[in-house]
Amino acid sequence: MTTGYLLDTSICVFFLRNQYGVAQRMRQLGQDKCFISDVTVAELMFGAYRSANVQKNLELVKQFVAAVQVVPFAEGIDTYSREKARLWAEGTPVEDFDLLIAASAITRGLIMVTDNIRHFEHVRNIKIENWIDRNPL
Fold first, then answer.
1. 5 pairs with which residues across the strands?
2. Are 35 and 110 in contact (CB under 8 A)?
3. Which of 2, 3, 7, 8 has the greatest CB tally within 10 Å of its CB?
4. Cβ-contact 48, 58 below 8 angstroms
């Protein structure tokens, strides 16, 4: 079975800014193995609307979204709800958008790619990779 990767918003921003070799990593893996949540699309668009160059950044987001597969968050609603209840009961709640993105990864059996490991460390059954090396040789 081929492994797929769900890129969180921070990883997508690094891609759009051509930072940390994210674009090269995606090319190596094949963009057909790279997914994003529609929650990430919303966050990217929000960022574009808040930017100094709205139209340019909206176009970049649009091009990026067209190049990857978008996972609807609705697929992971049961996982999200169950995990949110468990995390709240344990006193370790996770931000809703992060948990919706994580639930999409879990439901699809995708590896979550993030630079924010601590945002997801309490989520059960999630596989996480960090592609960002902030201390290259």
1. 34, 111
2. yes
3. 7
4. yes
- The model carries a pTM of 0.92
If you ran DSSP here, which 8-state letter would residue 129 be given? E
Could you tell me the residue ranges of all domains in the chain? 5-129
Residue 88 burial class via C-beta count within 10 angstroms: exposed 0-12, middle 13-18, buried 19 and up: exposed
Domain 5-129 has CATH 3.40.50.2300: no
Q: Which residue, chain included where needed, has tokens 């950044």?
A: 57
Q: Going by C-beta distance under 8 Å and a sequence separation of 6 or more, which residues neighbour residue 11?
A: 22, 113, 114, 115, 131, 132
Residues 78, 44 contacting (CB under 8 angstroms): no
The whole-number pLDDT of residue 136 equals 65
Q: pLDDT tens digits, residue range 44-85?
A: 999 999 999 999 999 999 999 999 999 999 999 999 999 999
